[in-house]
Amino acid sequence: MTTNQNRHARREAARLTEPTERARELAERLGLRPYPVNYWVVDYDEMNELIAYDGFQTRYPHWRWGMKYDRQRKQDAFGMGKAFEIVNNDNPCHAFLQESNGLADQKAVITHVEAHADFFRNNEWFARFAGDREEPAAAAMLERHASTIAGFMADPEIDRGEVERFIDAVLCLEDTIDQHRALAEERGGEFEEDVADIEERLDRLGLSPEVRDQVFDEEWVSARESEESPSVPRPDVLAFLREHGERYDEDEGKAEEREPWMDETLELLRREAYYFAPQKLTKVMNEGWAAYWESLMMAEEGFATTDEFLTYADHQSRVLGSKGLNPYKLGKELWEYIENTTNRREVVDKLLRVDGITWRSFHDVVDFEAVEELLAPDEMVDEIRSDTLDRLDPEDPRVDADGLTAARDGEVDVDRYPWYVLTSDGLAERHFSLAKPANRGFLSRVGRSELERLARYMFDDSKYASVEEALAEVDYGLGWDRMREVRESHNDVTFIDEFLTSEFVTEGNYFTYEYSRAAGGYRVSSTDPEDVKRKLLLRFTNFGKPSVAVFDGNYANRGELLLGHRYNGVALDVEQAERTLERAFELWGRPVNLATIVTEYDEHELEVASRRGYEPAGEEVGTLIRYDGAEIEHHDLDPDLEERIGAEGVDYDTKPEEWLA
Q1: What does the DSSP assignment read for 553-593?
Q2: What does the alpha-carbon distance between residue 2 and residue 82 come to, in Å, rounded to a whole number?
Q3: How many Å apart are CA 292 and CA 312, to the nearest integer?
């Protein structure tokens, strides 16, 4: 526990020493394997500064941090949202606790952070983006970047304003990287070339000076450098701009080679974009994972005392009940669904092996209330107090023998920390999801198709003589095991694609909405599970941003940059696209083009549709937006190029023929 050295912070750090130690012990007992965590106690202003800096203490000089700081401070001051925790992905992780928070909030943050640290350590997407390093070493990397860029700004030969404008331009395109670069490298596929120009590539060939001068003379090299174009669209726009971009010299009226500090700054910011990419790729999974384990530790394991529980429950309900697409709520519900469905399969598998129970007769002959009672945890592990320790057997695999000895010797307050005398097996039984009141009825909702699928290859279907005998062999830990497996390999897109089922959508009352041109506002458009899934996949594909790739670095044989918007049924905000092109020009140095598809509406049709209550169809039209450094132009798009930019087989538009009431 580290403090900022003021008296209040030291007092708070001393108060939180035991909760941080116990939270780590409980997390590990529950099967989590988190990075070590350094906890820092900071004041209100320091917390806002850290939030503005994305959880790190040192970042490069730029006005964006001040803007984020001011926004966070006002958001908190006017009751529009309070940040309870900030933790970064590093080894060790660094987590920050605000000294003015109550003990209930501090404990909630600590348990939340321990789950985040586990996710950072064990999710493969974070490991893939660490590059050649086994550990992220993020704080050190960002500090080096900050020092380098601060050096550029302090250099008397470099205009500080020019550095800030250049950073502005790069940040407008910071998400135009290749999210799957790490996967491509891992599988031996194509990935971004690290060599910046043709000259360096020729050097690598080891040709003699005579052969090189004869075959690859200066005229050939110059022509090739100006004609660099990818054979397939390149999603890492920043890498292409780093390799082939120039700067526009207003005095000369043409593109000139960039200053070295520009190339280095672009690459540093690109590396930071790749570092933060896994956090964007796993927002729902990560926050849901942390919310799940925080809730289990704070509420179910009593980490929040009786006096603290109401405060915790109030704050947790506000976090999970906040408006809009809430990654905490969606993620937590999906993790609970994975746990419940895994446990349900385990219980159903055992019941289908009972003599007299078949998949056809399952709902008729199974007494679900009796099953729920049988699945309830043994009183021995469910009701642990200082006066019940004598009935615990240290040889029982559910009991931690060392913990039991410590509790009996008075070294641990078992009334405060009952979990201390249990192993992971004991805790799994104690928290078996299908025995919880909130999940009553989940077992009985199993569908006939799932029952048939489970029974299809079941050969020992008369293994048990009774339901009691069958349920005695239920593996209570399978749900958590499955959750940990999923945590290792998925990102938000694959997570939602695999686990957002019709049952989940229906039970959770999810729906989609669209903007109605006729009504002039948003309306519910569909409750179909496939539509809900498509909309959520759109939200998390490419960080929820439009997918843009480099299609040509010598468009129309004029050295112009051609970017293509991979159209998927959702049109760009044209005004924002135009402003972004202006920034891209600063990184390319020559005219830049963007190929996209827009939907055009006839004014008369809009008026009629509004009166008659139907939605106008509109016409999808290919458009080329061009910026030459002075003005924006719109041109008709070549049909072949229009076909190339379409995302095949994908359309996220869920507008119905008839709107729902």
Answers
A1: EEETTTTEEEEEE-BSS----HHHHHHHHHHHHHHHSS-EE
A2: 23
A3: 14
Structure tokens, 520: 């002039």
**For residues 479 and 436, is the Cβ–Cβ distance under 8 A?**
no
3-state SS record for 380-422: HHHCCCHHHHHHCCCCCCCECHHHHHHHHCCCCCCCCCHHHHE
- Contact predicate 285/491, CB 8 Å: yes
Contact 22, 419 (CB under 8 A): no
Contact call for residues 102 and 20 (beta carbons, < 8 A)? no
Largest CA distance in the chain: 92
93 beta partners = 37
Task: Give the residues across from 97 on adjacent strands.
Answer: 41
Quote the tokens at residue 415.
């009334």
Report how far apart the first and last C-alpha atoms of the chain are (Å, whole number): 55
Residue 544: what pLDDT?
82
- One-letter amino acid at 393 equals D
Residue 470, pLDDT > 80, answer: yes
Cβ-count burial of 612 within 10 angstroms (0-12 exposed, 13-18 middle, 19+ buried)? exposed
Model confidence pLDDT, tens digit, residues 43-99:
989 999 999 999 999 999 999 999 999 988 888 777 666 666 789 999 999 999 999
Q: State whether residue 263 is helix, strand or coil.
A: helix
Contact 524, 616 (CB under 8 A): no
pLDDT at site 191: 39
- Residue 317: is its pLDDT beyond 90? yes
Q: Cβ-count burial of 57 within 10 angstroms (0-12 exposed, 13-18 middle, 19+ buried)?
A: middle
Token couple for 270: 């690109």
Helix (H) or strand (E) holding 87: strand 86-87
Task: Give the per-residue pLDDT at 222.
Answer: 56
Q: pLDDT-derived band of residue 194, with 50, 70 and 90 as boundaries? A: very low
At 259, the amino acid letter reads: E
pLDDT reading at 345 higher than 90:
yes
3-state secondary structure of 55: coil
Task: Give 544-551's long-range contacts (Cβ < 8 A, gap of 24+).
Answer: 545/175, 546/570, 546/572, 547/235, 547/647, 548/176, 548/235, 548/237, 548/594, 549/233, 549/234, 549/235, 549/237, 550/230, 550/233, 550/234, 550/237, 550/240, 551/230, 551/233, 551/595, 551/641, 551/644, 551/645
Q: What is the pLDDT of residue 532?
A: 93
* pLDDT of 520 over the 90 cut: no
Residue (of 311, 236, 293) closest to 26 by Cα position: 293
174/176 Cα distance (integer angstroms): 6
Q: What is the mean pLDDT of the chain?
A: 88
Helix axes 44-52, 63-77, angle to 10 degrees: 130
